[in-house]
Amino acid sequence: SDVCSSDLAAAPLATVEAQTIQLFAQTVPAVASIDVEFTHPSVDGSVPARTMLLSQGSGFLYDDQGHIVTNAHVVSDQNDYLVRFGTSRAYTAIVIGRDSASDIAVLALAAPVDIAPLSLSQRAPLTGMWVMAIGNPLGLRDSMSIGVVSAVGRTLDNDGAYRIPDIIQVDAAINPGSSGGVLIDSCGAVIGITTAIQSTSGNFEGIGYAIPAHRLHQIVPILISQGYYQHPWIGIQMQD
Questions:
Q1: What is the rounded average pLDDT of the residues 187-205?
Q2: d(CA 19, CA 3)
């Protein structure tokens, strides 16, 4: 059924619950865990060396060409990563485009996957919209939280050099490791990617931020085609 046309407010709780389960089931296969492979050396010859996967962040399958969209800060340290969908084997991927100013990056899988990509929402985010966040908070793969759009049109400081505009503020739980995960609307489309939290403890305190889908529409195709995005820059700065 088309959950976007359903009147969720008037629907019985069991119906809303079933629709939530359906949305999660159809979305989660394309949500990725972006990992780094780490080899722990042997210890005194008694403990053998072993390779471990360290969870780095989240992302999602953008198209049927094997492109993964995530945050630039998730893949800022290197170019080679391992990408895992659910309990599937890890796929190798390389960063082919990175834009630190908008905190968006694209990876390309080395091998195709038989997974349907997620579509970007054409809807404008509005305060009060129901949203679902799916990602890998604290390394816990395929976690879901539910909330609403708390505000739209926020700006987010990015390393002090740039400010990212049109940020969505949400109250769905977002934690370290959620970065690059998806924010899904009631139609099952990606309305944004979770990118940051406002916190005094380092963990979720009720305010999360997401980059809206229209920014992904604008920037991701350019990152895929040329590897970078050229922002307009007047060359004027202000100071006291």
A1: 89
A2: 7
Residue type, position 189, single letter: A
- 104-109 and 182-184 as β-strands: parallel, antiparallel, unpaired? unpaired
Backbone phi, psi, residue 159, to 5°: 60, 20
Q: Is the distance from CB of 134 to CB of 182 less than 8 angstroms?
A: yes
Number of helices (H) and strands (E) in the chain: give both, helices first.
Answer: 2, 12
> What is the DSSP track for 192-212?
EEEEEE--SSSS-SS-EEEEE
Q: Catalytic site residues? A: 73, 103, 179
* pTM (predicted TM-score): 0.85
Instruction: Match 């009147």 to its residue by tokens.
Output: 7
Answer for the pair 179, 55: CB distance below 8 angstroms, yes or no. Answer: no
The identity of residue 204, as a single letter, is F
Rounded Cα–Cα distance for residues 205 and 193 (Å): 18
**Cα gap 157→176, rounded to integer Å:** 17
User: How wide is the angle at C-alpha 79 spanned by C-alphas 134 and 165, nearest 5°?
Assistant: 55
CA 109, CA 92: separation in Å to the nearest integer? 6
Q: In 3D, which of 122, 123, 173 has the Cα closest to residue 147?
A: 173
pLDDT for res 135: 94
Instruction: Report the share of the chain in percent with pLDDT over 90.
Output: 62
